[in-house]
Each structure stands twice: as structure tokens, then as C-alpha cells.
Amino acid sequence: MWDSQNKKFKLKGILVRVTILNRKGGVGKSTVAILLGAALDSAGFEIAFDDRDPQGTVSYWAQEIGGVPMLEDGGNPRVTIVDTPGRLDLHNKRDLATVRELIATSDRLVVVTEKSPFSVRASEPMVELVKEHQSNGASAWLLFNKVRANTRIGRQEDRELVGHLGIAALKNSLPLAAPFENVQIDGYKAVTGKNRELVLKLALEIIS
Fold first, then answer.
1. Strand ranges (DSSP E) for the chain?
2. 11 confidence band (pLDDT: 50, 70, 90)
3. Which residue has the higher pLDDT, 76 or 48?
4. CB 83 within 8 A of CB 33
5. Pairing verdict, β 108-114 and 16-21
6. Mean pLDDT in the chain?
7. Pick the residue with more confidence: 14 or 36?
8. Burial state string for 136-147 with b = 16 or more CB within 10 A and e = fewer than 16
9. What 3-state class would DSSP assign to 12?
């Protein structure tokens, strides 16, 4: 619930683990994780990042730029945002076991993909793993990231792209926009106006 006087969200015992997934690199998983965590942190949620990517992008950003807590810092986060490795070989037993464990222990699963037939097709193995291993009560979606709305591909109907997957796309998507890239160096202050409102709407759609 939004507290208009304090401009904060009143927390009602929300305790949710959101995991950002795909098996391929380059779709923007770490940036999405950062944006979601920063948006919720700015709105008054007690959040923490859990960085499972060996590259440590989210850890670096949280500690050096964003000033957002990591899970290992302690505290009592009500929302945990989990980033996952940039590239996963699902034929590798260790990678597969890691992914299964992450899926099974998450409340919200977000498979990040670009809005194109090729990217969606490349996401299908991860979608199938999510459907197979997600826990009872968990929710899962595709998130279209870096959407170019002025192109023929960007204007495609979501159902045309994901209808065969048995998993829905989130209502909110993220466009290809300079502020979302600039958050890497300028922090969340780089995201303003309608872009900031969009990220918060997306974050609330996921944790609701």
C-alpha cells in the first residue's frame, strides 16, 4: 500500500525471493536485477541482492555505486533479488544442479529475453526447466528487455511470441533506453520520470 504522506510503501510482511534467469548472456539479466532492486529500495522496501553470478556485476554495483545491501550483509530483507550466471550450460551437471536449486527455492522467476523470435526460442530450455522445477505457489514469467518499440519485431504481440511456451509475458516490459544503461555508472539517479515509474510498476507486478 502506498503511503502518500511519507511517499513510502507500507510493508505488510512481504517476504519474497525473485530470481532473474536465462541460460544465455547478453539479454541484460544483471541490469534488470539492479533496476528492480534499486526501484524497490527507493520505494521503501527492505531489499537485498543475492549475486550468484561469478562475474559479480550486481555485487560491485550494490557496494560501489548503488549503496544497496547484499544478502550477506545481514539484516532482514523482505525482498531478495537473485542474479544468476551470464551463461549456463544446461548439459553440464553442475550448472544444471545450480539452476534447479535456484528455481526450486524462488518465489518469483523472471526469464529475461529480448523481444524477438530468436531470443525467445533460445529461452525455451530455461522456460521448460522453470516449469518443471518451480515450487508450488511460485510464479514465473518472461520479461521482454531492451524492446525497440518502433520496429516491426518490437511491435509484435506478446501472445504471438510466447503463446506456445505455457508461460506468460509480464505486462510491463523494459525498452532499450540510455538511462537503463547509465545506471551502471551513475546509479539509480540516472533513471528518472516515466522510466523510473515504469521500473517500479514492473517491480510491483513481480512481487505482488
1. 2-3, 8-9, 16-21, 47-51, 79-83, 108-114, 139-145
2. very low
3. 48
4. yes
5. parallel
6. 91
7. 36
8. eebbbbbbbbbb
9. coil
Q: Report the distance separating Cα 118 and Cα 126, nearest Å.
A: 14
Three-class DSSP category at 140: strand
Count CA within 13 A, CB hemisphere, residue 198. 17
Reply yes or no on whether the pLDDT at 75 is more than 50. yes
**C-alpha dihedral sign at 164, 167, 168, 169:** negative
pLDDT at 12: 55
Residues 6 or more apart in contact with residue 160 via CB below 8 angstroms: none
Cell digits for 186? 551513475
Q: What is the pLDDT of residue 149?
A: 87
Cell of 201: 510498476
CA 85-207-54 angle, to 5 degrees, is 15
pLDDT at 23: 83
CA–CA dist 188, 68 (Å, integer): 10
CB neighbours (10 Å) of residue 17? 18
Confidence of residue 25 (pLDDT cuts 50, 70, 90): confident
Could you tell me which of 147, 152, 103, 108 has the C-alpha nearest to residue 125? 103
CA–CA distance, 131 with 128 (Å, rounded to integer): 5
Percent over 70 (pLDDT), the chain: 94
Rounded to whole angstroms, the Cα distance separating 123 from 144 reads: 11
